[in-house]
Design goal:
The chain has 210 residues and is α+β, with helices and mostly antiparallel strands. The chain contains five helices and ten strands; from the N terminus they run βαααβββββααββββ. It has a single domain, classed as 4'-phosphopantetheinyl transferase domain (Ribosomal Protein L22, Chain A).
């Protein structure tokens, strides 16, 4: 089981979350949040961590606080507890995936116009062909992109993984002796999202805080 907690920037509920949960944040987190030039980025940072706190309660880890959050040498956050989590945000949506049973990475991207040729060197030749031959090359681009990003985030070694070295058109992908299972998520129109886990998952349960 993987839980995906979801909220949006502009809902009244998310604004009340920001007020109610500010006291849960260590001073260093508050300083970091307000270092962002864009207020929406500040709110995304806070809301991602608030979703994490909600998820931890759901999984029974009420004793943990954000002060106990650690980071590996590639800056991937984790708790010294038997669950894994990952946060992603884009546009109006913020997501946090959690599981007691597997490592997890999640990515969401708002579909918007880009100059795709600038990025095609990050994809395998077969992925490039898939994108250029798709009915909507823009949607195909973001589908492939979120799949790659979900794996990179689950793996935890950041961009030491070369995106062009692995093909994500199938739902089972091997990357440097690790096997990842991919599942596209239908969060909202105009967005692509994907979750990657190191074991097959039977169910993704969505929890909307909006």
């Amino acid at each position: 089981m993987v839980y995906v907690f979801i909220t949006t920037l502009n809902s009244g509920y998310s604004q009340s979350l920001l007020k109610d949960y500010l006291s849960y944040f260590p001073k260093s987190y508050i300083k970091k949040a307000y270092s962002f030039k864009n207020r929406e980025d500040t709110n995304r940072f806070f809301l991602g961590k608030i979703l994490l706190l909600h998820g931890m309660r759901k999984l029974g880890y009420t004793h943990l606080s954000l002060k106990e959050l650690s980071y590996n040498s590639y800056e991937r956050p984790f708790f010294k507890a038997s669950f894994d989590f990952n946060i992603s945000h884009s546009g109006n949506y913020i997501l946090c995936a959690l599981s007691k049973h597997c490592k997890v990475g999640i990515d969401i991207e708002e579909i918007k116009k880009i100059h795709a040729p600038d990025f095609l060197n990050l994809f395998t030749e077969n992925e490039q062909t898939y994108i250029t031959n798709s009915h909507s090359s823009l949607s195909a681009f973001f589908q492939i992109w979120t799949r790659k990003e979900a794996i990179v985030k689950a793996d935890g070694r950041g961009l030491t993984l070369q995106l062009a070295d692995f093909d994500v058109r199938k739902d089972q992908v091997s990357v440097k002796a690790n096997t990842w299972y991919l599942k596209d998520l239908a969060i909202a129109p105009g967005y692509c999202s994907c979750i990657a886990t190191n074991t097959k998952i039977r169910e993704v349960q969505y929890v909307w805080l909006a």
